[in-house]
Amino acid sequence: MAEVHAEMVANVWKIVVSEGDVVDEGDTLVILESMKMEIPVLTEDAGTVTKLQVKEGDVVQEGDLIAVID
Amino acid sequence: MLDSVLIANRGEIARRIIRTVRGMGLRAVAVHSEADADLPFVREADDAVLLGPANPAQSYLDIDKVLQAARTTGARAVHPGYGFLAENAAFARAVIDAGLVWIGPDPEAVERMGDKINARNLMEAAGVPVAAGTREPVSDLAQAERAAKEIGYPVMVKASGGGGGIGMGVARDDDSLAKAFEQACRAAARFGGEPAILLERYVERARHVEVQILGLADGTVVALGERDCSVQRRHQKVVEESPSPGVTPELRERMLAAAVRAGEAVAYRGAGTVECLVDADAQDFVFLEMNTRLQVEHPVTELVTGLDLVEHQIRIAAGEVYSVEPRSSGHAIEFRVYAEDPRRFLPGPGKIGVWEEPEGEGVRVDSGYTAGNTVTPFYDPLMAKLCVAGATREEALERGRAAVAAFRVEGPKHNLPFCAELLDHPEFVSGDYDTGLVSRMRKS
């Protein structure tokens, strides 16, 4: 099991995957937006998205949980 | 009578404009979002109006709210700064229709230059060199592939209505073209623009050099020298200098003359910038785009010419007729102090604990923040511009090193360590660098 966290304060601009999706290493899970920049959040592990903690429009703080990959 | 100016912007540029407005004996009116209520520009204005929430669409981009603020405060003129509504022709018209003085070029010039495809065609007709590229908007991938074949790879793909490097991408083959095309379309849609895409021949190892022009009230256009903006990450500028170390006097003369023609072609009034790509080996250049507003990096021109560009913008907008004799001496460099990590350049907003600006001969700091402020994720990451000037480039570099070392910022991540690294990098120090410099620095 691997947790994916936010690296910075940001708005959740776009959700790319859904819970239950199978992802590969390097796939984009969500796209954050901070300071006029799009920041794709990638998974470093292959597996299934078992939990998606954010939705579009949310504000995340540095370290907040974004998703769990199993 | 122009006795007061509303500044429709935020951060460092609002503060810098307020300084000149008040220095001219005029009343400065700030507008701001809830997130910016504690910033210095709000405090330093004579009057400040809360526009709305942090989201720019509900504050800095809301034309009705900005005009309402002008009415309630009795402001007589509007300065848009850069970004936000600065290149929005509809806003310029709304300001004029409200009976206020618009501190910028005619809305028509804003419109004609804002569409990059139109601007390219217009410049070509005016005898300004342009790169091989599309003359009509490209709207689908098949069309883009055909155009790329005709122009020849590599090509730069960009949204015709976009700006600030957002959505721009280089394509080296059909595969990367598909990606770059999709990215440009997304940027175009997101910033509310038409889905019109432009393809242009991409010049490898080019320098990004721009010419500052000033269109005077009597219709003459003068060129105030160039700025080299080749230190870029993600196609966005980080460091700028004037004069450009990669431009010979002969090339400078040709570029300045072309910039004047560009301004005259749209009957330009006020401060504007003609951006070019320079092939330093061939000592040749092509037109890139024209920015119909004050530029972020205008201080380097102010430092070498001794002119206050904001003051000239205001005097020209007020209809004052006078001439300007372009003169410059010495060398100036600007470092953009961004709230971002110095390795990957990812945003790093946060609360500022320590903020100590450097001082000294030849040092100018235009900042938007101070200790106790919070840099929020809602706006661009520019916290301050550290500018240095010297009699020679060597002296400016030396002052830059001392000033970067003396600038203390704690809290948000920041790129001052990158600036220090750059100031010791052989390519930058030699002056022989191009737009690929930052990515080369980060490859190792």
UniProtKB/TrEMBL annotation, chain A:
Lipoyl-binding domain span: 1-70
InterPro entries: Biotin_Carboxyl_Carrier/Decarb (IPR050709), Biotin_lipoyl (IPR000089), Single_hybrid_motif (IPR011053)
UniProt xrefs under Pfam families: Biotin_lipoyl (PF00364)
Lineage: superkingdom: Bacteria
Claim: Hydrolase is one of the keywords in the record: no
Keyword ATP-binding: no
Keyword entries, A-Z: Biotin
PANTHER family on file: OXALOACETATE DECARBOXYLASE ALPHA CHAIN (PTHR45266)
Name of the protein: Biotin/lipoyl-binding carrier protein
Biological source species: Microbispora triticiradicis
TrEMBL record, chain B:
KW Heme (keyword) present: no
Ubl conjugation among keywords: no
Biotin carboxylation domain boundaries: 1-443
Record-annotated ATP-grasp domain positions: 120-318
Enzyme class: ligase
Name of the protein: biotin carboxylase
E.C. designation(s): 6.3.4.14
GO molecular function list: ATP binding; biotin carboxylase activity; metal ion binding
Classification via InterPro entries: ATP-grasp, BC-like_N, Biotin_carboxylase_complex, Biotin_carboxylation_dom, Biotin_COase_C, CPAse_ATP-bd, PreATP-grasp_dom_sf, Rudment_hybrid_motif
Keywords: ATP-binding, Biotin, Ligase, Nucleotide-binding
